[in-house]
Structure formats: C-alpha cells, structure tokens
Amino acid sequence: MSDGILARGPLTATPDNEGVDAAVAAARRVIAALLHAGNGSAAEMTDVAARLTEVAQHLEEHAPSREERLVDMWAGEGVTRHDPVTGPENAIAPPLPLRGLPDGSIVGTATLGLPYQGPPGCVHGGVSALLLDHTLGVANAWAGVSGMTGTLTLRYHRPTPLFVELTVRARQVSVDGRKIRTTGEILAGDEVCVSADGLFIDKHLPRPR
User: Fold this and answer.
1) 96-201 falls under which CATH superfamily?
2) Which of 117, 140, 160, 203 is a Cys-bridge partner for 123, taking CB atoms 3.0 to 4.6 Å apart?
3) What is the pLDDT of residues 163-189, one digit of tens each?
4) What is this structure's pTM?
C-alpha cells in the first residue's frame, strides 16, 4: 500500500500503446477544437472536413472486422481500454482514471470541457449519469461483488461546472442476496454537484424461486 492506494490490481487501464495513445490524444484535441472553433469560414471548415475524412477512410480501410475487434477489445489486463468513461483508447472518454482507497471506496478526478457541455458552462446531466454509473460499477468490482445496473437514481444538487477539476467517488454500501446497493457523487471542490444511489443485480447468483 502506498499513497492510500491498495494494490489489488488496476481499476482502469493505463495507456501502454504509444501510437494508439498519441492518436487518441490527437482525436480528443480535434473534438474539442471543433467546438471551440465555432463558426469558422465555410472554405476553412470544408478543408478541415476533407482532411478528417481522409484520416477516417484510412483507418476504416485498415481496420479488422467488427467481430475480431470485439474480441480484441475484451482481451488484456482485465479492465477495458475502450469504455467511454475511463478508456485510454476511446477519444470520447475524458478520461477518468479511478483508484481504490483503504476505506473501500474508489475515487478519480477529471476536468471536462466543451464536448461534455449541457447548460452553458456546465456538464450535461446525462454525462454526469454516465460517469456515476460507471464509477459505481467499478466500486462494486473493487468491493468484490459486482452486477449489472438495475436502477440508478440521481440527485442534481447544483450545476456541475466545466473547466474545473471534478472528483468522482463511490462505494458499495450493502449486498443482500442478488441485490447490491452502491452510492457515489461528483464534487467540485468541497461541494457535491450530483449524488447517485444505484441498485445492481448480481447475475452470477441464481434467481430466487
């Protein structure tokens, strides 16, 4: 144990493919830059579109089949490299790296920009739900009993700001047969912006008769 982190194995994948990591970082820059560019001139944006289309066509032409890619995505260190929250190989992921703490909770930080905007200057409520659903699920895996989301109840306490470091944390609260209860929250500084209460169902246990 060091710096309050338990050594049970990684909760999120870490970048380990220099070429892919660089390409994904570039794609994230493009997504953000397109939003920041706003209403560029028609000629300029047409040229940008042509260059991006050329890159997309190159990638599509050299991609394996969908079936092969799905198998490859789920191979590796036991944590997904492609999910839309923590995946280092997914350009729409912030990403949000998560780590486990000695008290059984997990925590991570991320700063969200314009690609995640809902109300002006604030994170889209659906994005907050995505972050929390994933983080609660990882908290279950960290606790040792996991399942699929049954219900996810959110309370939006205040707008979640963009361009500010956010803390996302979660912990498993109880396990009752197949039912797993997990809670979490998103904070900006010391203020809770969104809290979540999740009911997860353990698919490995038989259904009660």
Assistant:
1) Hotdog Thioesterase (3.10.129.10)
2) 160
3) 999 999 999 999 999 999 999 999 999
4) 0.86
